[in-house]
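Methods — Computational structure assignment.
A single polypeptide chain was analysed. Its primary sequence is given first, followed by the predicted tertiary structure written as structure tokens.
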Amino acid sequence: MAANLFALISPPHIVRLTVLLLAAGLASAADRPQWGQWHSRNMVSAEIGLPQSWDPASGRGVKWSVPLGGSYATPVIAGGKVLIGCNNDQPRDPRHQGDRGVLLCLNENDGRLCWQLVVPKLQGDIYLDWPRAGICSPATVEGRRVYVVSNRAEVLCLDINGMSDGNDGPYRDEGRHFVLPGETPLEPAALDADILWILDLWSEVGIYPHDSAHSSILIHGDYLYLNTGNGVDNTHQKIRAPEAPSLIVVDKHTGRLAARDGERIGPRIFHSTWSSPALGEVAGDPRIFFCGGDGVVYSFGALAAASAAGAIETLRRIWRFDCDPSAPKEDVHRYLRNRRESPSNVKSMPVFVDGRLYVTVGGDIWWGKNEAWLKCIDATGAGEITESGLVWSYPLEEHCCATPAVHQGLVFVGDYGKIFHCVDARTGRACWTHELDGQVWSSALVADGKVYVGTRRGGFWVFAAAREKQLLAEIEMGDPMHGSPVAANGVLYVPTLSRLDAM
């Protein structure tokens, strides 16, 4: 049944990717208010006492389970709330009917709905906002503010309490935002989101989105760093916005565009801009690490202070590393559907650990070559470091969407070829591999001495986080998994296509 449901609603080109961790305000030390360990994007948690096995069918070991309708997102836990994107296949408010993007805010203790952001679909071309994909981007929480990119390619700042404490400004036109242009605005109700500000990437930044917005927002200081999702059009052979940025910086207080990259990545984007940025410190300086849709990793200096009102800065590039230097660099779309030769791209996020960057890269799943790698880069260099910066390169079975998890000298990652890998972080040599029941799109979580990973066939696997392979459990979730498991406050959260389980 799960496989049939997935076949009905799975978009052929959507990768759930989808944030740095800067816990503050309402977020306790055990919360997971953003993706990854601190600023690094590393999916490693200090939580203990997490389950080794459970049974979704009988409910054994399941604290609560909430139906999602359809979801490709990863949950985020902060301030007593659980936030996760989904679609509107199961309407929770009779006023919001039909295909919509939804961000649910649930009570952490019991999964009860606190409020929801409901966003109408972009109209016309389905490749702009794929049907029934919902909101794919994970939220980022800092204090009472929730930052998320909607299915309409809008950066939204929300009140974590929704409308329960009133309609806070400066934005007060939520009722119009909840409906399509030309429709009668709705009166905001208790279960609706409270929008504080909006930045429309389409109209204000000049991007051309593809499939669905997919961005995990990174916070550093007063700024939000995010990929724009700029990509090809519905022919998959043309970049409609070649001059649009791939990485932007937004003032978190106002939503004003503060900076952008100046790399002119657009013409070299083979499919879309999938990867979100990571943050690390090199020689005492904060660095932003970003993987472009051209298969190149870039390091930028972080913005230090607010610029003059209205001025949009260009990010200062420190180095660039081409993950696939022998791949085609010009007229890239003529390699469409070529499974032997094509450009590479990056769908996961780079992970920064101890001065090194770990990246999965390779041919596009739908349109490119099958070849893929896990690469380790020395992040301390400058200039063109394609040759000098490579520490090691490890071949993967076939394609890869997953962000690697680095823990105690080991790198854990699953790939599209149904193989889960444990790799020595120092040498790049395999410690062990294991064949899974299906393709891996989600990222593995390392926590409590265990490694958790799910597949698109509905299998969930628990290994010991160790150099020697030890399979601890194999659990049938009965539903495909695209979002990644997370742990917070002693609870493991596992998102599937149709539900979110808390154990």
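Note: The longest strand covers residues 100-107.
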